[in-house]
Amino acid sequence: MNDTDYMSIALKLAEKGCGKVSPNPMVGAVIVKEGRIIGQGSHLCFGGPHAERNALASLTESPRGATLYVTLEPCCHHGKTPPCTDAIVESGIRRVVIGTRDPNPMVSGKGTGVLITNGIEVTEGILEEECRELNHVFFHYIKTGRPLVVMKYAMTLDGKTATRAGHSRWITGERSRQRVHEDRSRYFAVMCGVGTILADDSLLTCRLPATRNPVRIICDSRLRTPPDSRVVTTCSQARTILATCCPDRKAWLPYEEKGCEILLLPPREGRVDLNALTEHLGQMGIDSVLLEGGGALNWSALDQGIVNRVQAYISPRLFGGATAKTPVGGSGVEFPYQGYSLGKTKITALGQDILIEGELAPCSQES
């Protein structure tokens, strides 16, 4: 086995922290001596030991002279845990292979520097793209201070999100719906507009066993969310935030009494300013948002520039209907060249459905 093989193992270990370590990164580590894996570990929960320390704790023999494979540059500062570089130096490990540097200015390049200063050989950039993609949320959040926003929707082959009568359950199949719940567990928060709550009385929780619920964010400029709606009455099960422009604190009381948090934000064209919202969410430590909005909220999110990635689930059905709802409403663009496009696209088959996902590319300015 070579460096790439061992880093692949470390990447699989890192995935064990999915949905559990946020806003920290997912990290995996493998310790190899004379071709034998003698220790391995993952960062398993926020505030818990990092992957390197868990790998060292699992050793079956002395690591002196061994090689450590780790998906992210080891930390060199005191946070919730001591610096991993200290533990590595003390262990007698001879070589460290790193997938990608940590974008955190407190670490970036400094962790590697500590290792080299202490006579440890360092190799960087092994499966770097894969290691960066694993933590695309962390990289975005550290660099911008705002959550990564993933706009997700399901539609028919003719681009409808509901029938002409407004019925939408179910457009996609069971495997697609399971994937949505996996992502609700993966991302820190899920967000929708009040229209979705009024139409579907959505719960917005994760229904997979042994997983956490996302923080639920409802964009509700005038506080129209029914106090007896499921998203309000289940605040004890999942943290719930109502983002509003309504300054009347008396109107807040029915929600606050049931455990909702009210986030008062400035209006933009009569609705919640989404840039102000994402700024506040970032300050609250929320590093990622799965946007499950309707057409109006989706357009506002695109128009205000908060969307980073798109997930489009497409069912092989045709609904028709000139007035049937579509994934993105609003005023839309005037010319085709002004449209939003995706880069780094990926297509996944999910039963009979397909999922197209990619990173939102900047709008073109020319025809």
UniProtKB/TrEMBL annotation:
GO annotation terms (biological process): riboflavin biosynthetic process
Keyword check for Oxidoreductase: yes
Domain CMP/dCMP-type deaminase: start-end pairs: 1-123
Active site: 52 (proton donor)
Cofactor notes: Binds 1 zinc ion.
Cofactors (names): Zn(2+)
GO molecular function: 5-amino-6-(5-phosphoribosylamino)uracil reductase activity; diaminohydroxyphosphoribosylaminopyrimidine deaminase activity; NADP binding; zinc ion binding
Protein species of origin: [Clostridium] clostridioforme CAG:132
Descriptive protein name: Riboflavin biosynthesis protein RibD
